[in-house]
Amino acid sequence: MTQSFLSSAAVQAQQHLPLSIQGLTVRDRNQVIIEDLWLDLQSGQTTALLGPNGAGKSTLMHALMGLVPLSSGSASILGHDITTSGVQARNHTMLISDSIGLLEDFTALEHFEYGQDMRSAWDQNQALEVAKQFGLPLNQPARRLSKGQRMALRTAFAFGAQPELLLLDEPTNGLDPENRSRFLSLMVDFVATGGTVLIATHVLSEIETIADRLVIMKRGTLLMNAEMEELRQHRNLLHVNFDRELTDAETTRLRNVPGVYRMGTRGRSLTLHVRGEVTLLTQMIEQEFPVQNIHIQPLTLEQVYVETMGGQL
Ligand SMILES: Nc1ncnc2c1ncn2[C@@H]1O[C@H](COP(=O)(O)OP(=O)(O)OP(=O)(O)O)[C@@H](O)[C@H]1O
């Protein structure tokens, strides 16, 4: 009895996640573009979606918006299946991407009027406020807007629609540094009020401080899905200076310490890449080796990314 109650509660919780992706697969003829992808997003979080060109990030977002058919698997947005209840699912979702077309003869204001007709939950003040923040001309047809202004229009439109889930595909493309920073502040405020963001970007510095979760894709599959906090605490570089050069035996001993997965040496200095708890390891090194000083440095997002992709820094 208890068991069945718990499992139905778990199913209900799953159904109301802002986004739940289960085994999503997209094929184009014989080519697999996304393969068996599983991912849950939590409300009030920003998830960074990273991966090399052609990894499948845009295809994933297009699939979630119903622009690309799923070959198998499923996904739901706030409990609405994107295939069988697509309209309800996308009522809560907006995609900001330069792949999303504009009504080229319509001005920003006319786009907003269109939004008012299309969306029952449209918030005109919000659309106008975001447009104002970006300095967007309201009365020029979209075809006469610059690349950055077009992105600002998509952003203002997306916020007018009052989404609960924002899918962002390189959303700061074309924005100048000030508008880039405004865009990121908007994201932070959106998430702080319970919104959920999935952002694909190659600009790691943009998301280093705002992402709660990091997801890395390569060739259509997930390579990593981790909390940023966990990465910060559990992926560190230890820079150690010794009183003298270590012997080969000492170096080998350090290399084999549990948690150390890479090591670089230069004279009396050594850099250890450490996964997991770092305090006990530091104490052990201080006790057993002729240490002058140790400096602990969390891996940057770029270092985590490059390591995950199998590269060297
Ligand atoms: N319209 C399309 N028709 C056929 N294949 C496509 C189409 N769009 C993308 N692809 C293929 O799907 C794969 C994934 O492309 P996608 O654009 O999703 O990658 P991405 O991770 O967003 O890359 P980028 O970082 O360059 O934006 C690539 O192999 C690409 O060639």
Automatic annotation (TrEMBL):
Q: Name one Pfam family in it.
A: ABC_tran
Record InterPro entries: AAA+_ATPase (IPR003593), ABC_transporter-like_ATP-bd (IPR003439), P-loop_NTPase (IPR027417)
What keywords are assigned to this protein? ATP-binding, Nucleotide-binding, Transport
Q: Indicate the segments forming the ABC transporter domain, all copies.
A: 19-244
Q: Which PROSITE patterns does the record cross-reference, listed alphabetically?
A: ABC_TRANSPORTER_2 (PS50893)
The answer to whether UniProt assigns keyword Cytoplasm to this entry is no
Q: Does the keyword ATP-binding apply?
A: yes
| Domain of life from the UniProt record | Bacteria
Listed GO molecular functions?
ATP binding; ATP hydrolysis activity
**What family classification does the UniProt entry report for this protein?**
Belongs to the ABC transporter superfamily.
**Name of the protein this chain belongs to:** ABC transporter ATP-binding protein
Q: What is the species listed in this Swiss-Prot or TrEMBL entry?
A: Deinococcus cellulosilyticus (strain DSM 18568 / NBRC 106333 / KACC 11606 / 5516J-15)
